[in-house]
Design brief:
Blueprint: E1 5-6, E2 40-41, H1 43-49, E3 51-58, E4 61-67, E5 75-79, E6 86-88, H2 96-104, E7 110-112, H3 122-129, E8 133-136, E9 150-153, E10 157-161, E11 164-168, E12 177-181, H4 184-187, E13 190-194, E14 198-199, E15 206-207, E16 209-211, E17 216-217, H5 220-230, E18 237-240, E19 246-247, H6 251-266
Parallel strand pairs: 6-7, 7-8, 8-9, 13-18
Antiparallel strand pairs: 1-2, 3-4, 4-5, 5-6, 10-11, 11-12, 12-13, 14-15, 16-17, 18-19
Helix pairs in contact: 5-6
Length: about 270
């Protein structure tokens, strides 16, 4: 039986003769149902019309994204470590060419995903490489295809490889997570944020939202919690959730400044 994939958000569901009536991810207020109504595809169909682009994003870090753009359009990141690669975030499409390209980069020993909007075809990716997928336990209800490879973790931090640490920060989702790579940016540190911290179009500042497509802001407490969660870590680079959406200098200062700016903007103050 096929595993249907939502065309709007890219989430793959458990197998069934027919697709679900609705996508649980898209009917929730942080996402949306496509303007043409609920539509589905499968991995086999996607492989006929799309391919994955593999492109360096920084020292030791390579982006993987689907073309033409599919669903939310995010890209995953392959992070090279001495004990094997780590795949951060995920895509709906995985095929033989992508598996070969990732193996050429050194393969992967683990996967981790920032939040449910990027779960995509995580089980297919896990099976392609035979590796565990680390998800924050607070978001377990949003898993639409369960598998023994899924590892639900709790607490504030989890090191999944030497120098590669998951940071629970909440905000966009209760379990929203970022990844800190101590050896990133040539040893100055890198932070991979998905869209928990969204890199701005200026690529010098960042933003925070509960829902990006529906323009629902985060409250002050949530933004303060996110900023506090990453404060103990050193990072020069920030890698967002899309190709090129990166800050390649003064990343930590960008988060500090942007958090202050955001809190000022939503605070009570006189206009003009």
């Amino acid at each position: 039986m096929p595993n249907f994939i939502c065309i709007t958000c890219g989430t793959q569901y458990a197998d069934g003769l027919n697709p679900p009536e609705d996508c649980a991810i898209c009917t929730e207020e942080r996402q949306f149902v496509g303007w043409k109504g609920q539509q589905w595809t499968t991995l086999d169909e996607l492989r006929l019309t799309h391919r994955n682009r593999v492109e360096p994003e920084g020292p030791g870090i390579v982006g993987i994204g689907t073309e033409p753009a599919f669903a939310i359009g995010q890209r995953a990141l392959h992070i090279r470590t001495p004990v094997g690669g780590v795949l951060w975030d995920c895509l709906s499409l995985v095929d033989d060419a992508t598996v070969a390209a990732v193996r050429a980069l050194g393969g992967i020993s683990a996967m981790a995903i920032s939040h449910p909007h990027f779960y995509a075809s995580m089980v297919e990716w896990s099976r392609a490489f035979g590796v565990p997928v680390y998800l924050n336990a607070a978001d377990s209800a949003w898993v639409m295809r369960d598998d023994a490879a899924l590892r639900f973790w709790e607490g504030t931090r989890l090191e999944i490889a030497p120098g590669v640490t998951l940071i629970h920060c909440g905000g966009h989702f209760a379990g929203s997570t970022m990844l800190h790579w101590a050896q990133g940016a040539d040893g100055l540190g890198a932070l991979c944020t998905g869209d928990t911290i969204m890199v701005g179009q200026d690529r010098h500042t960042v933003g925070f939202m509960y829902s990006y497509p529906n323009f629902i802001p985060l409250n002050a407490r949530a933004v303060g919690r996110i900023a506090s969660a990453v404060e103990p870590f050193e990072f020069e680079h920030i890698y967002g959730g899309w190709f090129g959406k990166n800050i390649l200098e003064n990343g930590k200062q960008a988060v500090r400044y942007s958090a202050r700016r955001y809190l000022h903007a939503i605070g009570d103050r006189a206009e003009g």
